[in-house]
Structure formats: C-alpha cells, structure tokens
Amino acid sequence: MIRSTVLLLTLCPLIMPTSAADALEGHVQLGGSIVDSACNMRVGSDRQTIAFKPMTLNGLLNGDTSSQHSLTLYISDCIASEKPNDTDVSQRFKLTFEGQPNGKYFAIEGIAKGIALQIKDRQGKLVSPGMVLEHNELSTDSLMLNYSLTLVGVGHALEAGDYHATIKLNIQHF
C-alpha cells in the first residue's frame, strides 16, 4: 500500500504539465432541489431599512439612547414538512445576523468614524456578527423576534458624517 502511494505521488509531477495546459478549459455542472419552500419574513418597514435620526457627537459621548430603535421580525411558513411536530422549535431554526464585525458589534461604513451598531435581543443579551441567535418561541408555524439597535462608540476618535450598514439575517430551518 505504501509503495503504490509513493509511486502515484512520484508520477503526479510528470502528469501535471500536460493537464496544466487544459486548465483553462473547464466545465462545472451543478444540480440540486428545493426540499421545502423558503420562509416568509416581515419587518416593520416595507423597505426593510431603519433610519437613525441625526445625533450630535456630544450626545453619543454622553450615552444618549435616543438612537435606539426596535426591530421586530416576523418569520412564518418555514417549518419543514418532514419534521415531526414534537421537535422543539428552537431545534428547527438556526438564525444568525451576518455583517462586517467591529469587535463584538456590527461595523458601519461611510464618513462617520468611531461608532458601530449594537444589537440586543429582548432579554438584553448582546448579539454579535455570526452568533447563533437563541429563541424560545412556542409556536410551530411562526416566530416573532424582537431586537433593539443602538449606535455605540467603539473607543476610536469620533468623526461626524453619514454612515450605513448592511446586516443580513440568515435563516436555516430543519
């Protein structure tokens, strides 16, 4: 067994130059199927955006919470039909917020500097980028998830200006 492996590895460099010429010609074929329909999701805003009101740098430095916004997500119609009804709802869903991290917060882009977006769940637990979200909903056909979004300083010099962030909610249901 060891000899055949060594022989095969010894022959690979001899074969490579001929296959390298064909490297530009390739074909990829993908196939798949949709096992269940996608979930329906509703956010408080039809545009699925949240606009923070302008605030002063002094307000942010002094811990002004007027920049806090609530975010309620309604997720429905995404229970896998093959799953038994006695499976715990929290085991049927894997939810994560995805976005550029800035430490434990979500990074912002734009001219403004020294701030980030903080997300907390309804119990006040911090939600970080890529973290699996906990939910204890009892309903088997829909979830209502409540979060708060707040601008926070991140320890760098603050600079005034416009900013934006894109945060995606990834839903996997089993």
> What percentage of the residues does DSSP assign to strands (E)?
25-35%
Q: What is the assembly state of the chains in this entry?
A: single chain
The unreliable regions are 1-23
Which CATH C-level class is it? Mainly Beta
List keywords for this structure.
174 residues; alpha+beta; Immunoglobulin-like; seven-stranded antiparallel sheet; two-stranded antiparallel ribbon; 3 helices; 11 strands; 31% strand; elongated; disordered N terminus
Can you describe what's shown?
- Belongs to the fimbrial protein family.
- This is Fimbrial protein.
- InterPro entries: Adhesion_dom_fimbrial_sf (IPR036937), Adhesion_dom_sf (IPR008966), Bact_Fimbrial_Adh_Pro (IPR050263).
- Keywords: Fimbrium, Signal.
- It is found in: Fimbrium.
- The chain has 174 residues and is of the alpha+beta class.
- It has a single domain (36-173), classed as Fimbrial-type adhesion domain (Immunoglobulin-like), CATH 2.60.40.1090.
- 17% of the residues lie in helices and 31% in strands.
- The chain contains three helices and eleven strands.
- The protein has helices at 2-21, 57-61, 89-92, and strands at 40-43, 69-76, 93-98, 101-102, 105-107, 109-110, 115-121, 126-127, 142-153, 163-164, 168-173.
- The strands form three sheets. Strands 1, 2, 4, 5, 7, 8 and 9 form a seven-stranded antiparallel β-sheet that branches. The protein has a two-stranded antiparallel sheet with strand order 3-11.
- The protein is elongated, with a radius of gyration of 24 Å.
- Mean pLDDT is 73; it is low at 1-23.
